[in-house]
From TrEMBL, chains A, B:
The gene is npdG. The keyword Oxidoreductase applies. Residues 1-10 have a biased composition (Polar residues). GO terms for cellular component: plasma membrane. GO terms for biological process: copper ion import; NADPH regeneration. This is NADPH-dependent F420 reductase. Residues 1-27 are annotated as: Disordered. It comes from the Bacteria.
Length: 245, 245
């Protein structure tokens, strides 16, 4: 890869840090099995899929929706102890809150839940995309990315971004035992990204990989437009693995 | 993943096209063994690395530089029949021209080679990145991406984008026989992206995967900022594999 500086990065980076004190093992992640996972937009395909995977992994899961009734009926269908609640209730009762709402409702939903999400670990997995005859393309939120919009709207929450590149079809298919893919996790605080990585690792086949700060979330969100093209060309449900890690 | 429409894409996409006439096998790629590969910026780390890999795979390779002397001395070091030439000479004598110049010189170099690159298949692999204390971050070219800038500056060339996520360290290391990674290939014409995919497939361990049109190049270029973070955290030379493909 060719970049702005003379530094042959990213390849040059490991050498740069090698002289420093030994870093903490990046695979030493906390035990998150006791955390309650809330999923806003939990009645949508992506939300239902994630709820199914986390519940199946033994995590306590609450799916949120604008309508309590819809949330409860979706939860009942999912089984595995998944609960359904109104978004505000889901947010206040959960330790980690995954934001899986459609991009159109993203800002409005988060604004309305500012109090309930205060102090919570928020995981944004929204991909702002447009679609036309030529396929999908990236939209650029004013804040830079959906995750940065969330961080701007939720100053008292700990905002991270993850779970962008998963196929909702695979997530929701109960016949599929493993989903072999990596989950890129972005955030500003290592304690928070470690928790999200550990959560990703609870799902069979998945691995959470730290992939930078929120200012680099846009390209991770937008890459879904490329996966749409991959899926069309190869009739696949494409995901990503990070190699050499 | 959650997107703008109700369509559960990218997962929903395969189903959409399933009703159409059977598509051409996406892995049926042309024989490119006879093509001459030019590498502009061939004396830089990325350029030298790609030249080494293509020459090793049996491809005829010409590396280009502003200085004929520097190009020739780099070519001699590389061996395997690699030639060195001034950029203009490299461009006119090659069938496929890889652009591996630093982002700062990108527009100027391409503008100056418009005539030599007319009719050629151009493969842009430049990642516009900035670096500061917090690491790497994406720059956004006025045209949307380096590849779109190339397409705007070279209206008579066939512009594609590929080879963004490769570690220059691994590419250049003669002890490494295989580089197990996928190469995302973007472009407007299937004939062109097929050639670039086939070229990627000439390198041991690599596979060229079609990943969309040039309007979706920015996120592919920018993702290198995330790989820089991955490399720092895990002391790795990260690359990417596309799963389920």
């Amino acid at each position: 890869m060719t970049s702005t500086s003379a530094t042959p990065s990213p390849s040059g980076e490991p050498g740069k840090t090698a002289a420093k004190a030994p870093a903490k093992d990046p695979w030493e992640l906390p035990d998150v099995s006791g955390l309650v996972v809330g999923v806003l937009g939990g009645t949508g395909d992506q939300g239902r899929g994630l709820a199914h995977r986390f519940a199946r992994a033994g995590q306590r899961v609450i799916i949120g929706s604008r309508s309590q009734e819809r949330a409860r009926s979706a939860a009942e269908e999912l089984g595995d102890g998944v609960e359904g609640a109104e978004n505000a209730d889901c947010a206040s009762r959960s330790d980690v809150v995954i934001v899986a709402v459609p991009w159109e409702g993203h800002a409005k939903t988060l604004e309305s839940l500012r109090d309930e999400l205060a102090g919570k670990l928020v995981v944004d997995c929204v991909n702002p995309l447009g679609f036309d005859k030529k396929g999908a393309y990236a939209l650029t939120p004013e804040e830079g990315s959906a995750a940065q919009q969330a961080a701007a709207l939720l100053p008292e929450s700990r905002v991270t971004a993850a779970f962008h590149h998963l196929s909702a079809v695979l997530l929701q298919d109960p016949e599929i035992d493993r989903i072999d893919t990596d989950v890129m996790v972005l955030g500003e605080s290592r304690a928070d990204t470690d928790v999200v990585q550990a959560l990703a690792g609870r799902i069979a086949g998945m691995r959470g990989v730290f992939a930078g700060r929120l200012r680099n979330a846009h390209q991770v969100e937008s890459l879904v437009a490329n996966l749409v093209s991959v899926n069309r060309r190869y009739k696949a449900h494409a995901g990503l693995r990070v190699t050499d890690v």
